[in-house]
Amino acid sequence: MVVSQFYILSPRGDTIINRDFRGDVSKGSGEMFFRNVKLHKGGDAPPLFYLNGIHFTYLKNNSLYFVFTSLFNSSPSYILELLYRVVKIVKDFCGHISEEVIRANFILIYEIVDEIIDYGYIQNSNTESIRHLVHNEISATSDVCLGGVSSVGTSSSGGSITAGGVATAVGNTVGNSITSISKSTKKLANLSNLSTFSMKNSNTLPSNASQKPIQLNEKKNEIFLDIVEKINLILNFKGEIIYSYVDGVIQVKSYLQGNPYIKIALNEDLYIKNLHSDNTNNVIIDDCNFNHLVNLSQFERDKILSLYQPDGECILMNYRINNNFKAPFRIYASVTYGPNHTVELCIRVRLDIPAQYTCTNVFVNCNLCKHITNVHLDLSSASDLFSAQYIANEHRLLWTIKKFKGESEHSIRSKITLSPGYTFCKRDFGPIYMLFEIPMFNLSKLRIKYLRIIENYKSSNTHRWVRYITQSSSYVYRLH
User: Fold this and answer.
1) Does the pLDDT value for residue 310 go beyond 90?
2) Cα 431 to the chain's mean position, in Å?
3) pLDDT of res. 274
4) How far is 450 from 160, CA to CA, in rounded Å?
5) Do 150 and 105 share a structural domain?
6) CA 106/CA 168 separation, integer angstroms
């Protein structure tokens, strides 16, 4: 496989990074790529496409475009994996990917790219190997400094509050969970397609738990561990689940000195697929796969993930759960046609998790018909925590709940005036989509019993951070 060019483009199409390895592709390929992606019909452009004799491969991360060009028809999976590795290494060094960070560290990024690829051929794609070859220092920006998680001087056995949010510090045993809330706010992307929801910024820190670059933490002895679960679920008009599964991931970001051996103990009652007992209290997952560094024999025997942890970000385990969980949100909705071309839409949402958990920045979105002259919204609770709006150009209702406590419910009533010539049809309303994130809670009941670091030397300043996050990937309620 031969790469001709590497680009990083801004959301506006500006070229931030441009490395031409071979000189065999025209200089205007970046503009050609951006025009094709923006004007692509039928949704997003595919990650690989062929245009004017050039093979383009791209990944989108935080609204930035990472692009490879080539004159050769290479293996799609191979070139996508290489591009993913480049993005991951840049993130490991810079701590966070954003336009500000890329512009502030363009010299460092050029050096990283030159270590990965030489004259279009891959040389190295491992963070640990490259870090000793890169000599430029990271330029800290507000994105890196404000978003990072930092310790306040606790030892390995104590808990602490962090700068960017709140996490759980653990010693040999994971202690009490504390909700994590960052200063960033959620933004909804354009939902004109309404097939999925997407977020610009999460209400907690990113899923790797830390945005700190590896170069700024060589004197720190820290490890961040996340269990992230994403829900895909469809409810019918009766509120019954007709389709559901959870995609889970255990991922770690390490700043440990000397790459020590680590052991992460999971629930002893964890069972995979049909190998479980009849006890319904067991934690059951339907499918899973592991990082190649994990000792599989010890996991089979003791349910322990053990490995020599490399520097940077690493996914230890992916898993999937089908149907064997309770939906966190219950939705009830009705559409009633009234006199004078009016429709009453009522939506009630209940959070069925223990009261100690709080879901922040919940977005409830409902498609409405296109023939509307006026919408009056009435919230069940008058507070700054609740807001609702009718977005006319997208024909949808957006209801925002900033804080939603467990074992509670909220409702909204909408009085909609229809156009005089329109004949009411219930199928023109719905479905309802939800976007949410619940910190320090997971549906699978998968737990970290302990996180042990087997070091060659004694260190009293090792910090361990563990988080649980539940997110909506696709949470849909059908009105009919």
Assistant:
1) no
2) 24
3) 55
4) 17
5) no
6) 34
Judge residue 124's burial from the number of C-beta atoms within 10 Å of its C-beta, 0-12 exposed, 13-18 middle, 19 or more buried: middle
| Residue 175: other Cβ atoms inside 10 A | 13
- Residue 372 contacts residue 416 (beta carbons within 8 Å): yes
Tokens of 443: 């549906």
What is the distance, to the nearest Å, from the Cα of residue 30 to the centroid of all Cα atoms in its chain? Answer: 27
Q: SS3 of 84, please? A: helix
The residue segments making up the domain with residue 107 are 5-143
List residues bridging with 244 in a β-sheet: 233
CA neighbours closer than 13 Å in the CB half-sphere of residue 408: 13
**pLDDT class of 143 with cuts at 50, 70, 90:** low
Same domain, 228 and 246: yes
Average pLDDT (99-127) is 92
Q: What is the pLDDT of residue 210?
A: 40
Task: Among 143, 162, 187, identify where a domain stops.
Answer: 143
- In degrees, to the nearest 5, what angle opens at C-alpha 292 toward C-alphas 288 and 297? 70
Give the dihedral of Cα atoms 288, 293, 298, 303; nearest 10 deg: -40
Contact 289, 318 (CB under 8 A): yes
Secondary structure class of 179 (helix, strand, coil): coil
Could you tell me the two tokens for 366?
Answer: 């409902």
The total domain count for the chain is 3
Asked if residue 433 and residue 344 are part of one domain, the reply reads yes
Q: Which of 448, 458, 455 is nearest to 177 (CA)?
A: 448
User: Rounded mean pLDDT of the chain?
Assistant: 82
- Encode pLDDT of 414-462 as tens digits: 999 999 989 999 999 999 999 999 999 999 999 999 999 987 666 657 8
User: Among 128, 143, 158, where does a domain finish?
Assistant: 143
Work out the end-to-end distance of the chain between its first and last CA atoms, rounded to an integer number of angstroms: 51
Q: How high is the pLDDT of residue 165?
A: 34
Enclosing H/E stretch for 110: helix 106-116
- Tell me the CA distances in angstroms from 108 to 123, 220, 278, one per residue in order: 17, 21, 55
**DSSP-derived pairing of the beta strands 283-285 and 270-272:** parallel
pTM score, two decimals?
0.68
Tell me the HSE value of 282 on the side-chain side, using a 13 A CA sphere: 16
Pull the structure tokens for residue 452.
């042990």
Q: Please say if the pLDDT value at position 142 is more than 90.
A: no
Contacts of 116 (CB under 8 A, 6+ apart): 85, 86, 89, 122, 123, 124, 125, 130
Residues in contact with 470: Cβ distance below 8 Å, sequence separation at least 6, in sequence order? 229, 230, 231, 328, 437, 438, 441, 442, 443
Q: Parallel, antiparallel, or unpaired for β 222-235 and 241-254?
A: antiparallel
